[in-house]
């Protein structure tokens, strides 16, 4: 009551002063309103500056003394800056009846504007708190790879929706529930407008619940050209930074409606698969003679294997009285089989091959490009450049080793091969042309 009386006295003081100067009542009324409005604006400005400096200074000092990062994120997201706006807003609301006491018809519309600003300010404060909470959760082990953005975006949309309803209610003078009831009738349109948001929200829940994708996972989604690390998962999109540093944006709900590959399992086990073949020329595969076996025994990695294997083969052939005047009779070793044994021994002693995961050297079905000998193993370093280096070293060695087993790697004829063949004396070039045409067809 005392404050109201003081305000009334201030209002009358300036008004009576203008009247005493001989100014007409109408002009005195407007001049009184403008003077009071100027005073209030100056007071609001000074209060806003002082409140902001005090609030920010105090929060910064408090943040420096605490170990938690949450208060740092509150400052970073301007939470205290928004809170400092509350005091000037209170001054504006309280001064409206004083400044516009001679214009009562203006008070209600201006009060509506201040109420609308109050709603907007409240939303800004809550959103700053939510952003701070999101940033803080991302620093914790439990939530750092979870799609926190999606859930906070849903809360933000809900805040905007509630704020919109309240502002609409202020502008129209209708009750909030009346507006909500009217919205129910337009639910089909709302579902259509917010289809992507709803699908994204549902997808975010499923992705998080089923632990399908985390921030930092390497995923491959060929349909959308995505092959890289997940950098962000929000309500509507998933951002993937590809290995060429481009960014691919995928709708969140496509992660549950389409197929994609997540390489997290590979990264977690610490082994990256090597699956590549060497194609041997089939005509170079042969049985081993005693001279061949003696020569191959000089290769250290398979010396003991050859001795043990040959002992079993000789025992079998002797017991079954096998005629070894022909190599095809009885049991024999082949250079392709010995090469596979050598490749297996080489992988076993290679320090960059993961020994706790699957490792084999297998023969695949012969094709028109030769006999594939497939290396199936895992490098013990999942980093791309190191993995490629490990795989290259393995195949450099094995490709160079092939000739020591009297084997050849299948290759299509090169241009110089064809020139040498054409220039060879005695070559029937017409027959050669005919053979090449047959191969084309």
From TrEMBL:
The chain crosses the membrane at residues 30-51, 86-107, 113-130, 151-170, 176-194. Residues 196-264 form the Mechanosensitive ion channel MscS domain. Keywords: Membrane, Transmembrane, Transmembrane helix. It is found in: Membrane. InterPro entries: LSM_dom_sf, MscS_beta-dom_sf, MscS_channel_2nd, YbdG. It comes from the Bacteria. Signal peptide: none annotated. Pfam families: MS_channel_2nd. PANTHER family: MINICONDUCTANCE MECHANOSENSITIVE CHANNEL YBDG. This is Mechanosensitive ion channel family protein. It comes from Pontibacter populi.
């Amino acid at each position: 009551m005392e404050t109201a009386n003081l305000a009334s006295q201030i209002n009358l003081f300036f008004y009576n002063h203008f009247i005493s100067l001989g100014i007409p009542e109408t002009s005195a009324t407007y001049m009184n309103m403008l003077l009071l409005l100027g005073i209030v604006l100056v007071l609001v400005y000074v209060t806003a500056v002082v409140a902001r400096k005090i609030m920010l200074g105090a929060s910064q000092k408090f943040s420096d003394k605490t170990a938690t990062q949450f208060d740092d994120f509150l400052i970073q997201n301007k939470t205290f800056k928004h809170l400092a706006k509350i005091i000037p807003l209170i001054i504006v609301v309280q001064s409206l009846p004083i400044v516009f006491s001679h214009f009562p018809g203006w008070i209600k519309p201006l009060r509506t504007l201040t109420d609308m600003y109050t709603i907007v300010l409240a939303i800004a404060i809550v959103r700053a708190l939510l952003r701070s909470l999101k940033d803080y959760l991302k620093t914790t082990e439990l939530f750092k790879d979870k799609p926190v953005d999606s859930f906070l975006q849903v809360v933000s949309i809900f805040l905007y929706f509630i704020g919109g309803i309240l502002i609409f209610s202020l502008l129209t003078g209708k009750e909030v529930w009346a507006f909500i009831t009217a919205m129910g009738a337009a639910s089909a349109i709302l579902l259509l407008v917010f289809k992507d948001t709803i699908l994204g929200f549902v997808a975010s829940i499923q992705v998080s619940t089923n632990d399908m994708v985390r921030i930092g996972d390497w995923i491959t989604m060929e349909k959308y050209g995505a092959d890289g690390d997940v950098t962000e998962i929000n309500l509507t999109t998933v951002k993937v930074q590809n290995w060429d540093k481009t960014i691919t944006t995928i709708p969140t709900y496509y992660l549950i409606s389409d197929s994609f590959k997540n390489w997290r399992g590979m990264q977690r086990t610490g082994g990256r698969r090597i699956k590549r073949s060497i194609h041997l020329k089939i005509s170079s595969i042969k049985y081993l003679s005693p001279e061949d076996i003696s020569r191959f025994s000089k290769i250290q990695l398979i010396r003991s294997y050859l001795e043990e294997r040959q002992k079993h083969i000789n025992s079998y052939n002797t017991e079954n009285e096998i005629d070894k005047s022909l190599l095809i009779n009885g049991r024999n070793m082949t250079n392709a089989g010995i090469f596979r044994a050598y490749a297996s021994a080489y992988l076993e002693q290679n320090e960059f091959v993961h020994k706790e995961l699957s490792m084999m050297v297998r023969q695949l079905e012969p094709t028109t490009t030769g006999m594939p000998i497939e290396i199936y193993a895992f490098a013990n370093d999942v980093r791309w450049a190191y993995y490629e280096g490990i795989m290259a070293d393995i195949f450099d060695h094995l490709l160079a080793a092939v000739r020591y087993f009297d084997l050849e790697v299948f290759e299509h004829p090169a241009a110089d091969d064809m020139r040498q063949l054409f220039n060879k004396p005695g070559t029937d070039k017409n027959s050669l042309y005919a053979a090449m045409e047959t191969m084309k067809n």
